[in-house]
Fold this sequence. Notes:
Elements: H1 2-47, E1 51-53, E2 74-75, E3 79-80, E4 86-88, E5 97-99, E6 104-106, E7 115-121, E8 124-130, E9 137-139
Amino acid sequence: MVLALVAVLVAIAAPQFVRLYAWVRTAFERDDLERQLSELPEKVRGSGRAGVLADPAAKPGAPSLPSPAGAGGSGWGGRAQSEDPQTLSLDLPPGWKLTVPQPILYHFSGACDGGEVILSLPPVSLHYVLTPPLCRPRLADGR
């Protein structure tokens, strides 16, 4: 009788634990992705090269960065125009998708031109705004 009662309690509680585990895992993954976005300026500054965060699924012919502008023929944050910016990426956990509507330029100094990033793990979609010059990720709904 006791074993039957324990089996019923486990059958009732197990789905709750599975949902709780999934919720906690997703929260940790989201926090890690926000941390990666916050660390992009330091990563670029440390490399000494400008960088571009673009949509990894962008098709050829998709919108690209405007031509670099600057005095004395330098662009991309003071570097020569011939030096292409490095491609920046995030280490996405399984199931997550990154969407960058317009490529975001990070100058070699770590300052960025701002933009938007959408991180999604269906059915959830998180829309972040990156405001120049620091480009700290901020949820678009103000949180």
